[in-house]
Please model this.
Amino acid sequence: METQTLAAFIAVVDEGSFSAAADALNLTQPAISKRIATLEQQFNAPIIDRSQRKLALTDAGQRLLPHARRILDEFHNARLALSPANDEVQGQLSLIASHHIGLHHLPAWLRRLNRDYPDIHLGLQFMDSESAFDRMRKRSAELAFVTLNDAMDHSFEVHARWDDPMAFVAGRDHPLARLEHPTLADLAGFSALLPDPGTATYRAISRLFLEADLALRPEMPTNYLETIKMMTSVGLGWSVLPRSMLDQSLTELTVPARVSRVLGAVGLRGRALSPPARALLAIVNERP
Model:
């Protein structure tokens, strides 16, 4: 079995169609179809269900997929181990970062990386943490800088982590800003400006309100914390933001509840990191 056939199979699954897989691998669609047919002949079973309008895997295809990913990961690991340049910090480094980490943490690390290792060629994608986990499963990057959460599955390995304490805030002219000791019950009477319900931050805040038997009034959800900060500063509602983002446009609300999140760098378990990725992690782990 050739790795190219497995790569074609995985590309079809990840891209959602034969044509998109062909584009991703710089091949023709007939070439992709031929490689899938070769796999099906080798296993004597169909792996793609061609009877549906939307691409779907057969039972055999579902069982093959995790093995195919592991085989290609091991091939990747072997190629790194046998490379004569295995100790040279150069070449491509593909990263994913959440927007907040990309704005407030990543610049200093990348400035240092570029200074110390000018032969690294960086590929950087920005997206919310939940989307980043999905892209990492598809091997779209070596490392992702994201908000860690309890729902993260065992396929990920955390290479660095740090606490990101948060604070309840409102605009300086918001009614809540005039309260000396606001409570969750006070907050429940006003609109909340929060990330999407699927995020770890939203779940943490929602849990506080559920435990207090209070209603949460989310408005205009967005995963861009800078946008949330702006909307909060002009009085459209209260929010919870990282303390590192607080400035004179906001008033911290001394709510008797603690909210924090954990940020980190994750890779795929069992997939070796390249020298550029290891160099970046060394810089990240030097932070105070």
User: Anything to note?
Assistant: The first helix runs from residue 3 to 15. The mean pLDDT is 90. The first strand starts at residue 48 and ends at 49. Strands lie at 48-49, 56-57, 91-97, 120-126, 143-148, 156-171, 239-242, 250-253, 260-268.
